[in-house]
Write a structure and sequence with these properties.
binds magnesium ion; 10 helices; UDP-N-acetylmuramoyl-L-alanine:D-glutamate ligase; eleven-stranded mixed sheet; four-stranded mixed sheet; 38% helix; alpha/beta; binds adenosine-5'-triphosphate
């Protein structure tokens, strides 16, 4: 079983608005609503890969209900903690005339210790020893930076593996608790280690440092330049696949989902990494935060180049 945790989900409202202009009346051409948030995106990609997960985290109000319904319609099991305030709506304005993509994001509301603890309990109740909990995204405003670190320690004490995708202070504290897997991009890795990198060998050495510190698997994603997959025994470099880019939103989440899918399906590490390259490239070919098309994944998979460093 895989459990995904999203503490700050959002209803993503994507509007197509040709000739978007400030200080004027703008008329929307088309609109779509998607359940968003990093853990939720991981659950969506897992579903597309044929792996079930339980989505937990915090939802509120009418927008929260919309997200829960949307996930349930996709066949994703949900067990969220509920708060009275509406889950935020994030507006994405796509202007096909000026080729711009403008994000207008609501701030998230703070939540109580009790609500956070109930999310931990839901995840811990659903996961058995050996299962994976994915902690992904930001924590609500005002939450201690050590929340993921504390949860990692507590999940590990129950034999549950944590895959973490976080940034900044959450990542720095969380990494010290040695989750089973982290997936920073190069900028996040820089913030984690407090330095910048000069090329692939330097990035691989940095990932290796973290593995030696006790994190089993470190995946460093490099956008269009591909990714590095580092464990105690293997250092693989996936070359970036050349694909037409529609939206890079969720590319990292699809990589996270595939790593978890490979682990629970008994795939080899190498096959899992190859699939992660294909799924993440297929994700950037789809608009918005929709999961990758598995037919595209099947076409891309033979094109993946994985090099042992
Ligand atoms: N332009 C691109 N072309 C091909 N593949 C891409 C491109 N951008 C991303 N990818 C694939 O997706 C993976 C993850 O992307 P990226 O490094 O941008 O993650 P990220 O910064 O965590 O993104 P996010 O957090 O927004 O999901 C990359 O390692 C790569 O395999
Ligand atoms: Mg990311």
């Amino acid at each position: 079983m895989i459990v995904t945790v999203t503490l700050t989900p959002a209803l993503d409202k994507t509007v197509v608005l040709p000739g978007f202009a400030v200080d004027q009346v703008n008329r929307i051409q088309s609109l779509r609503l998607d359940a968003g948030g990093k853990g939720i995106n991981v659950s969506k990609v897992l579903k597309a890969l044929g792996t079930d997960s339980l989505a937990t985290g915090i939802l509120g109000g009418g927008t929260g209900r919309y997200i829960e319904n949307a996930l349930q319609e996709m066949g994703i099991a949900c067990d969220f903690a509920w708060v009275p305030q509406d889950t935020r709506t994030n507006l994405k304005v796509i202007d096909p005339v000026s080729h711009t993509n403008t994000d207008i994001n609501e701030p998230g509301a703070p939540v109580s210790e009790e609500v956070l603890e109930s999310v931990f309990e839901k995840a811990a109740a659903a996961a058995n020893p050996g299962d994976i909990v994915v902690l992904a995204g930001k924590a609500p405003a005002g939450t201690a930076d050590t929340i993921f670190a504390d949860w990692i320690t507590r999940f590990k004490a129950r034999g549950i593996k944590v895959y973490m995708d976080a940034d900044a202070a959450l990542l720095i504290a969380g990494a010290k608790a040695c989750p089973a897997m982290i997936k920073p991009n190069d900028a996040e890795l820089g913030r984690l280690l407090g330095r910048s990198f000069s090329g692939i060998a330097d990035l691989a050495a940095a990932a290796k440092e973290l593995v030696e510190g006790g994190i089993e698997t470190v995946v460093v994603s490099l956008g269009g330049d591909g990714a590095l997959f580092v464990t105690k025994n293997e250092v693989l470099r996936g070359k970036g696949l050349r694909v037409p880019v529609q939206s890079t939103v969720g590319a990292g989440d699809s990589m996270m989902a595939t790593m978890a899918h490979g682990a629970v399906s008994g795939m080899s590490f190498r096959d899992t990494c190859a699939l992660a390259m294909a799924v993440s490239a297929a994700t950037v070919m789809t608009p918005g935060t929709q999961a990758a098309d598995m037919n595209v994944v099947r076409e891309l998979l033979p094109k993946v180049e994985l090099e042992t460093l």
